[in-house]
Specification:
Elements (H helix, E strand, L loop, with lengths): L22 H16 L9 H8 L3 H14 L2 E4 L3 E4 L4 E3 L6 H7 L4 E11 L3 H7 L7 E10 L2 E10 L16 H9 L5 E10 L2 H7 L6 E11 L2 E11 L3 E3 L21
Parallel strand pairs: 3-10
Antiparallel strand pairs: 1-2, 4-5, 5-6, 6-9, 7-8, 8-9
Helix pairs in contact: 1-3, 2-3
Pfam family, one: GntR
Protein name: GntR family transcriptional regulator
GO biological process, one term: negative regulation of DNA-templated transcription
């Protein structure tokens, strides 16, 4: 495709020139410097049209340059809004903690939108995880979690209704763990968690403000209090804003527990 020519009277600055380095690669480095040194995290970058006009290239060239930086995680496309510099990723240490409290410790402003709160019969897998009898109801809760106004995660899960009577009558926009501790004397102290990566479905992508199929870190957690299962929660975290750090130990058996070390005799 031929490079775009400026219209008569149209201002063109910083026009890229032909040379050994392809124009999309030249533009990529210009945008990398812009995103890394000049723009604040979460700032919009110029549109494809504006970039094409400024640098005298086709929109296909702009799209290729931006696509490389999106793949690197330096930029993110938000459907219907444009392209933005990425925010620093939030790091999870894989411990049992409240999202609200975790974000506050990081100096971020947590926000929660309740999407659904209802009493219903859970699917068989959840019933087994929570130790419920067949047909026994539980509380279903779905929430959108934000930090500094940015959608971070969608949580969809279940709580043991018999252990937490009237849970849905309380304010569910704050820390559930704090609510359980203060109202019910229930402190979630242990659990099992599985982490996997998958592409977001259309509804989850819409809530997170990303494209359908965008990568997400998925956490499936079953948490207990004094040995009783209380929570069965699955959370979808934006892959561009979240990362996981794990402590590695040669003496670990891979289950999160450490094998005893035999001392020489």
């Amino acid at each position: 495709m031929a490079e775009r020519r400026a219209a008569p009277g149209e201002a063109r600055t910083d026009v890229l020139r032909d040379g050994p380095t392809p124009k999309h690669a030249q533009l990529r480095e210009i945008l990398r410097k812009l995103a890394g040194e000049e723009l604040l995290p979460g700032s919009p970058v110029p549109s494809e049209r504006d970039l094409a006009a400024r640098y005298g290239v086709s929109r296909l060239t702009v799209r290729e340059a931006v696509g490389h930086l999106v793949a690197e995680g330096l930029l993110v496309r938000v459907r219907g809004k444009g392209t933005f510099t990425t925010r620093p990723r939030v790091d999870s240490q894989l411990h049992l903690a409240s999202f609200t409290e975790d974000m506050r410790r990081r100096g971020m402003r947590p926000e929660t939108v309740v999407l659904e709160a209802a009493e219903a019969v859970p699917p068989p897998g959840t019933a087994r995880a929570l130790g419920l009898a067949p047909g026994e109801p539980a509380y279903r809760l779905s929430r959108l979690r934000k930090a500094n106004g940015a959608p971070m995660a969608v949580e969809r899960g279940w709580y043991h209704a018999a252990a937490l009577p009237g849970l849905l009558d309380h304010d569910l926009t704050g820390s559930i763990y704090t609510l359980l501790a203060h109202r019910y004397g229930v402190r979630l102290e242990s659990g099992t968690q599985t982490v996997l990566a998958e592409g977001t479905d259309a509804e989850t992508a819409r809530l997170l403000g990303v494209r359908t199929g965008s990568p997400a870190l998925v956490f499936r957690r079953v948490a207990t209090a004094q040995g009783q299962p209380i929570e069965d929660m699955t959370s979808w975290y934006r892959g561009d804003l979240y990362q996981v750090t794990m402590q590695l130990d040669r003496n670990s058996d891979g289950s999160g527990h450490h094998r005893p070390t035999r001392r020489p005799t």
